[in-house]
């Protein structure tokens, strides 16, 4: 579910500047489109359930009780003794669910309609919903965080592949609908509420649930964010998750096209800025597919994109202080048309004097007229670390 993104000024580059010194580029991850690789492997017995089973009384309280039904195709799947086969049969019986007619009828039957303030623009092309899940290359050893459950269409597809899913929905009414749709999936846990505690952090209980579930899955299992992110929270969700412990090993999300272009932008381009540097300093980034407004209901006013971010643990571990790095990068691009010296002096006012700033810039070969947008990733990383060391020396 999506809605136009509101992004802080520090993450919004607007003016292009040619960069003749830029030398670093990020090697994109090439996705394997072979669908057969993404089928759920046979059930493993080396890990217990990701979520503790609820007693019947608690199931009734949460609204996650299984609905009575007549004999169906997925009852016959029991002979397979495979939960994946059960899920596939259930999906086959339900038929196409992520269509305009299905969604409008489903919401109308509950007396609901899309709520714009929650970014409720539903992806109504089932092939694209499946592309999101397929691009994540999930296995039963993986844990998925989904933010924006909607009616659970992407969730049910991922349930066939992932070991555990934690899905968060801010809308109480949609949360109730999704709870009914997902009641038969014991490895799916639903949380109702805002995923963010504030702009700069996630709700603590969400990451606590992530750590708890990950501990119940095999040690080599991965943690992923896979979601149709509401655009108005896409930037803080992605940025904050990169700070978290554990951070997602992979993110496959639908976001605003403009935001995806900023995440993958090269030095010297109009889209290159703090968000570009932060994401590319710790991830390999690739735009998987551009999506037109017509594949959503209701239609947004902007184009969208599916983006895949693969965490580079070596790059992330090479940054001595992630919080300092992120904060300083944001400051460097806050006034992108100002010269670098002026920006650094302003950002470190009261922490470094002008002579110390000049010494740092001179040691790195940056002249008086250089701007932050002209520096490549390595140059910015070297600058931030030099400033950190200078500040530590000044404090001693």
Distance between the termini: 50 Å
List low-pLDDT spans.
3-46, 65-80
The CATH class name of the largest domain reads Alpha Beta
Instruction: Determine the CATH topology of the largest domain.
Output: Rossmann fold
Order of helices and strands: HHHHEHEHEHEEEHEHEHHEEEHHHHH
Tell me about this structure.
It is elongated and about 70 Å long. With 396 residues, it is α/β, with parallel strands linked by helices. A seven-stranded mixed beta sheet has the order 4-3-2-7-8-11-9, with helices on both faces. Strand 7, helix 9 and strand 8 form a beta-alpha-beta unit. The protein contains 16 helices and eleven strands. It folds into two domains: 309 residues, Rossmann fold, CATH 3.40.50.150; 63 residues, Helicase, Ruva Protein, domain 3. The longest helix has 19 residues. The N terminus is likely disordered.
How would you concisely characterize the structure shown here?
The protein has 396 residues and is α/β, with parallel strands linked by helices. The chain contains 16 helices and 11 strands.
Keywords summarizing the entry:
11 strands; elongated; Rossmann fold
What are the SSEs and their pairings?
Blueprint: H1 56-62, H2 73-76, H3 83-94, H4 100-109, E1 122-123, H5 126-136, E2 143-147, H6 153-159, E3 164-169, H7 172-181, E4 188-192, E5 196-198, E6 201-202, H8 204-216, E7 223-228, H9 234-241, E8 250-256, H10 257-263, H11 274-282, E9 283-291, E10 296-297, E11 304-311, H12 313-317, H13 322-332, H14 340-347, H15 354-363, H16 377-395
Parallel strand pairs: 2-3, 2-7, 3-4, 7-8
Antiparallel strand pairs: 1-10, 5-6, 8-11, 9-11
Helix pairs in contact: 5-6, 11-13, 13-16, 15-16
């Amino acid at each position: 579910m999506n809605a136009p993104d509101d992004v802080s000024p520090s993450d919004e580059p607007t003016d292009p500047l040619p960069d003749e010194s830029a030398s670093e580029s990020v090697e994109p991850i090439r996705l394997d489109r072979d669908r057969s690789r993404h089928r759920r492997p046979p059930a493993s017995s080396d890990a217990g359930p990701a979520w503790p089973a609820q007693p019947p009384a608690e199931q009734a309280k949460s609204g996650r009780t299984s609905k009575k039904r007549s004999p169906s195709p997925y009852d016959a799947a029991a002979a397979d003794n495979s939960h994946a086969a059960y899920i596939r049969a259930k999906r086959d019986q339900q038929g196409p669910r992520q269509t305009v007619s299905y969604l409008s009828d489903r919401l109308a039957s509950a007396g609901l309609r899309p709520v714009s303030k929650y970014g409720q623009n539903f992806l109504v092309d089932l092939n694209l919903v499946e592309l999101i899940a397929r691009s994540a290359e999930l296995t039963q050893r993986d844990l998925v965080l989904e933010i924006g459950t909607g009616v659970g269409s992407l969730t049910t597809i991922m349930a066939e592949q992932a070991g555990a899913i934690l899905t968060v929905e801010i809308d109480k009414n949609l949360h109730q609908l999704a709870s009914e749709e997902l009641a038969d999936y014991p490895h799916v846990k639903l949380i109702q509420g805002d995923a963010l505690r504030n702009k700069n952090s996630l709700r603590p209980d969400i990451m606590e649930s992530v750590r708890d579930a990950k501990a119940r899955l095999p040690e080599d299992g991965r943690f992923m964010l896979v979601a149709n992110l509401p655009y108005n929270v896409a930037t803080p969700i992605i940025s904050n998750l990169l700070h978290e412990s554990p951070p997602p090993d992979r993110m496959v999300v639908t976001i605003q096209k403009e935001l995806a272009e900023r995440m993958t932008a090269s030095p010297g381009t109009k889209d290159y800025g703090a968000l570009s540097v932060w994401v590319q300093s710790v991830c390999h980034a690739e735009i998987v597919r551009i999506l037109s407004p017509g594949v959503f209901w209701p239609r947004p006013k902007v184009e969208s994109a599916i983006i895949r971010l693969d965490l580079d643990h070596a790059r992330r571990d090479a940054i001595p202080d992630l919080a300092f790095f992120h904060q300083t990068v944001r400051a460097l691009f806050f006034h992108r048309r100002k010269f670098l010296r002026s920006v650094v002096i302003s950002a470190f006012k009261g922490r470094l004097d002008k002579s110390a700033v000049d010494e740092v810039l001179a040691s790195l070969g940056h002249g008086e007229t250089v701007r932050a947008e002209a520096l490549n990733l390595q140059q910015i990383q070297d600058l931030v670390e030099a400033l950190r060391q200078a500040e530590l020396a000044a404090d001693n």
